Protein 1
Amino acid sequence: MRYLLLVMFICAPALAQITPGARQISICNSDIAASDDVFAIFSNPAGPAQIPWRETGVFYSPAPFGIKELANGYITHNEYTAAGSFTAGIMTFGYNLYRETKILAGYSLQVARGVFFGSAVNYHMVTIKNYGNDGSLYLNAGALAYLNENISLGFSVINLNHSSWGKEDDQIPMVFHSGISFDYEDKFLIHLSAHKDVRYDFSVSGGVEYYIFNLLSIRSGAATEPLRYSLGTGIHISYFSFDYALSLHQDLGSTHQVSLIFSFESFGNRLSTIKNLIFKDED
């Protein structure tokens, strides 16, 4: 246990700083330019402004890489109003000897047709048994824009003020994300993203999604630095969306993730519904 605690203390910033959502993980988090569900607040805080309804999501990964002490869970809620979207979330990672907890609150809005901006404030706390705890406050910011009905661009910065715990730098990563997404008839989507954690090498990820009768989706993705592969599926019925992802790390092995989203409005195809509202006045 002491060895595991040491490993977690050194590596936890990398292990805990995944973004939630089984859909997102099944495409290796390449959806920066899509970001169209409630979990978007953790990766691109501009995304929730696209969702013109209330939505709640729960995510859980019980034993990343087969280690139950790395379990992590998220819950988040998006409240849509005429003045913009207000989103809140909480994350927990670890076990009784080492635990990280993050509370997040964000705001996003549409500033022009198909152009969205958002930001989120995080309070991130770490607790290590027999060593005490520390907390840090930091800001995320993001933007998303549709070039047309089929192509969108996205950009976000995580930990904009480069905050950390204690006197050590980079305990909480500062990460830049950018991406582009293409869709064909709201059924077949291609995502490409670039990521730069200030501590590590530049990374690229890509993913594809295919929707069958608006009820079932199949997904896959790949990423570099480190080399990862992923696949997953989703089922959407009325107000509920259930997603599963399997991610494969080149050195650490496999991880299973699940998430459930409850939307307070019933719809068929999520992307079609969002785009119909954005572009509804166009001929």
Protein 2
Amino acid sequence: MKVRWRALIQTFVAGLLAGLAAASAARAAETAYVLVGPQGRQIARVITDAAICPALEVDGQPLAMQVRSRPQTFPQRPTASSPALSKPSAFPTLVCEADLPPRARTARLGERLLPIAPRVIRRIVLIGDTGCRLKQADKAYQACNDPAKYPFAQIAAAAAKLHPDLVVHVGDYLYRENPCPADEVGCAGSPWGYGQDAWDADFFTPAAPLLAAAPWVAVRGNHETCVRAGQGWLRLLDPWPLAPHRDCNDAADDDIGNYSQVYAAPLDADTQIAVWDSANAPPPGKPLAPDDPRAIHYALNDREIEAIAKLKPHTFLANHHPLLAFAATTDKTTGQIVLRPGNLGLQSVFLRNDPNLFPKGVDLLLNGHIHVLEQLNFGGDYPSELVTGFSGTQEDIVPLPAHLPPTETPAPGAVVQNFSSWVDGFGFAELERVGPGAWRIRIFDVKGNQVNACSLVGRVSKCEVDQVRR
């Protein structure tokens, strides 16, 4: 009898402790989201204050999560800012992850349902360049505390109401690099640097409704290189395994940590997104020498894109830096607006492999980096390009022209046939499938009001309005 009671008590205590641990983990799970990775693998990821990973329930069955990274504060490393304006990156949380089974229908974390992408993606939300800019070198202090001047939270909420199947963020998540000066009320009290608190303020907190609405394809931007927010990127949003030396912790390993393999995320049987990490691309104005380490890495990526484009009839190429779009600057001598085309460094690498830059089957380029909404069509000779770097970060000061001069070309032989932009408004875009190889593109403001509509058939795109102004 004593043995029986002892066994019952042990079973009860074990169950109670397991329940308490699960409840504690569920309570502490601050952020849960799903990333779409290589071959369309859906990765459930959780950032938690708990000491153990919570248990997922997938289709009614438990699924154990594995530790991706443990709480740690990394020693201060060289960054893009001066040492006086840098600090160690603190990540006091546990990051856990689990691959969802390919045909999973439901995934539950406690009482919370995680989003799962359908087998056929019909509606995609596009955003980019979402962080609040705090950068001493540019004397740029965006009013992060003012929803009108930093509207990413509004954009995420409005985009979530569209019930997308997938979200694509084209890069640049964390802009709060340096402390807000004491006399800048608009950003007073903001976290800064590259640790978890800055990631939460700049991305995870405002993005919460959109993270809950759909799985994400996360594209790496130049703000996520190793000298900036690379440590957080590789712990939190990168879909590849977190590996020693590819973690941005040691500057000596940056030539490993700054690059990734191109991967494909299928949208259906005929269409896919190829995700390319162009984060460490050079400034736009100069070609890269063939022996430049960046050229070597991106030449390998170019061959990977070429191989992926052969897998399906239609490919969207998602990376941060536009190769065929325009940015506007002002000539310091004359004061006239000057258009800066594409990225000559990346173009120089791709042109060595293909005089048309991109292989056949690449229909659409999805980019950010330029803080505007911009669409370009080249009549099918080149992919159309859609820049969506207008989702929260301080917008570009110099506006794009309403119409491009006929002599302007972003690359050799690339003749612009249709051009559209929105240069003075924050917002997001949506791709909606309307037929085989055919999509409707809609442009929305921060509240979800449509401001423009475009069509994409194969490589050819056209917008209803050439330039939107508020």
Protein 3
Amino acid sequence: MRSALMGTAARQIDLVEQFRRYGTRILPAGFYRQQHMKEPPWIRAATVTNNVQITAVWQSSRTATQCQAVQNDEVLKPKGGLWFTPWVNSGQPIPDGFRVLWRITNTGSVAKLRRAERGGFYPPAKENRRWEELQYRGVHIAEAFIIRMSDSLLVGQSPPFNVVIE
């Protein structure tokens, strides 16, 4: 059992190191379809826009006043956390009548051992923003889903925002 866990940990270390060197092209096929990821439960609108962007800022704590912008795919230390904010149409806030849910998916051996892989849908913590602590080594995924409140249709979905923790 121990050798299996060590092998899993070694592969994850390699994935983080390889990601640092080569970026997203090193991710295995199916990376964005992890077994533990929940499928969106909403009926999809006839057209689901992917013109949904996520920005992130790092803070030392959830209530800290100073922050630093973080880019998709940036490699981060396992301290503090990120506030994720969804935008539509290149920088517009989510309009009234729509709500945001976040799919947060952890990968990596530490998250797996601690049964913290997640992959479900989570509400915003403040307005449409979501706070996530940086804890587990791995390449993790944040996605924003936009749901029209009048009929609960999925109308927008962001591309994955990769959070790489060393």
Protein 4
Amino acid sequence: MFNLFKNLGDLKAMRDQALAIQRQLANEEVVVEEKGVRVVITGDQKIKELSSENISNQTLVEVLNKAIRLSQEIAAKKLQEMSGGIAGFLKR
């Protein structure tokens, strides 16, 4: 039988877990240094630092995209950890 209050509690627990993962991602950092460019980006994809040594815009874009891709990989790993909880909730 469907128990609304139990399911709401489960949803709150999942929300709390998602918020915790979001905080963890904000504390992760990816550093990419290539071709005279240094990018520091957080796991939640916020750029903390960007520096270059007279580098073209195209090179900056390439390095930024690499940093973002790496931060997305971190986020995907965290979401995979969380997906076990969601899968168990959906089986009910």
